[in-house]
Amino acid sequence: MPGVLSQLLSADEPLFSHAIEQLEKASGHRGTDAKLIGDIARHFTRVIEGFGLDPRDTTGHELYASLLARVHDDNTRVATKLGARDPDDVADMLPRIIEAVHSMKIPKSCWAMKYDAAREFMRRMPPQKLMQHLGYESIDDLLQNEPLEEVYVALRFSEGPEWLKEYNTLLRSLTPDDFESREITIVQMNHHKYVTLAEHFVEKKLHNVTHSKEMGIITLVPMHATRSRGITLKTLPLLLHYINEIRLYSTFFKLKQSKEDFGNIVVETLNADPRTASQMAGNYVHWRVIQRYYGKLKDEAHPEAFQPHVQPEDLHWRHVEDQLAEYDDVMKFWLETDYVGKIETDGPLTLNFMDISLSYANNIPYDERYTYHFRESLWNEIFARYMGHQNLENQILKQLDNSLIAPENIKK
After folding, report:
1. Most CB atoms closer than 10 Å: which of 80, 297, 301, 348?
2. Cα separation of 193 and 154, whole Å?
3. Residue 407, preceding bond cis, omega within 30 degrees?
């Protein structure tokens, strides 16, 4: 049974099978992996039959074409709902997408670095290249005349790796007093000022969304293209994804605020993401799995181990597909598909909406299809299901202070 999961994940054997055996034995419940495989097959069949295809003889190429066509229709419909006349018009669509996210009734609070703290760090280490690019000789003039949200994110485009490395060393002096609770900010950066700085990022990532975990900022960076295929359902899911990500790390920082080395924890998490969380039956578990698990439970299931800093609302977590379905009922088609895929001769074919929407928007051929978000979702689903067994959940809660690595690294 684990062979199916390991193939979908491209995880090394027999290491992966041994990890599953440990989890099965420790949980006292055999068949958790088998049930997951059955659920994957069931959802896969539902989607194929929804396209009017026969699961027995549909090729990967045929299904992939159907998935892309579905995203095309979804993108056109959602863009129209946003009031667009041309769903590929970048300048028209991006403000509409931001407005749509603002209108969604989803948690957007976070625990982030204070703006005054960010300004002080920049005064201590002025970004000379950015100042030159924007025409400022004084850091105070820069901070007085430019939106901090744009400037702070622009640092990663302008200053280079050596400056950023030194700046991160400066951030190690952060204390919990430098943080505050506030709403996540979504910013569309000034096109004229930043389009040339951001062009390498857009070229490399094939999208124009980035974020700052420590500042609770999501930015739409400018790009040269005035038209972009599928821009609505490329950008909207990414904004929702990064809201989840910021809240994920915000909650982790809250949990760690009583630690003497708080600043080091923040910097290491931002730079290397060392997956400091817990351990389950000898397997390493990312904080993402823990938040995903508790985020779907009722408030009364909030563990005492998270108190006093982390409250039930901090753990609230929702699938991007769930959030999209609440905005547009037809998007329910994609529910429960984020961890679903099928083995083809050249690797997995996924039904993960974010992978499919990005593949559509970037015109990715079948042989180069995306699987990144699918594999991350499947890893998370595996460990979240095992966390559902009481003895493994207790194991997690007792070890939250361990410095461990991510489950993804089982395959290394």
Report:
1. 348
2. 10
3. no
Q: 397: which 2 tokens?
A: 């809660």
The region, left, alpha or beta by phi > 0 then psi within -120 to 50, assigned to residue 394 is: alpha
* pTM: predicted TM-score of the whole model, two decimal places: 0.87
Greatest CA separation for the chain: 67
Other CB atoms within a 10 A radius of the CB of residue 360 amount to 22
Q: Which of 390, 398, 372, 368 is nearest to 60 (CA)?
A: 368
Q: How far apart are CA 6 and CA 410, in angstroms?
A: 10
Least confident of 180-184, 189-193, 275-279: 275-279
Indicate whether 407 pLDDT > 50: no
CA distance 59 to 62: 5
The pLDDT tens digits of the residues spanning 116-132 come to 999 999 999 999 999 99
